[in-house]
Write a structure and sequence with these properties.
single chain; 236 residues; alpha+beta; 4-stranded antiparallel beta sheet; 8 helices; 15% strand; flat
Amino acid sequence: MLNPYVEVIMRSIIAFTSLFVAARILGKQTVSRMTIFDFIAVVTLGSVSANLAFAMEIETRYIFIAFTIFVILIYLSAFFSLKSEKARKIVAGDPSVVIENGKILEHNMKKMRYTLDYLNQQLRQKDIFSIDEVHYALVENNGLLSVKKKEQHLNVTRKDLKIYKSEIKLPVELIMDGEILQDNLTENNISIDWLQEELKSRKLTVGEVVYALLTSSNQLYIDIHDDGLQSPLDVE
């Protein structure tokens, strides 16, 4: 018979590994912003994993069987949700409209127990400080608020001003923690000699650079270890 301490350690490792494998199988959506179904899945897996680690009176194999069954059920629910619209509605539900044509739908909010204070809070997080700016707003299945502003309150875009580019170039990381990212240079046809010359013009060496990035506008952003701040906030 194993020493109780050794058994707890082994069971904890098994629980952690099982949960990690399950998360990889079930996908990123399980650990991102959660729907009600995702919440149930995470709580269930967490509870079973805790029992697997600490419930000494229950044999490991029984808990592991239960864990496996839950993973299979969650996976099948996600699979059927992808294949069927009806299944998606059962598993995740439908978004709920809370503002329509600028009018607050109190009945829908009451059914969700969704308060005006919380609505205003979520609007402020989208830089909207007046409900009068909103044309439509709906609460998504994961609890986040999606908003369409009224036409007169929409931000002017580069497309509106006809100054946008048809192709968008992604930023390229060149140096990280004092190390040149050679693969990034090669993939983007960037010469290491050019990078060295740019650093030399700034009287810097690669070792002094924390982070270097070639931006979408072909500007070189560089952050060094010694920022020269009088009272840096990241000093312990």
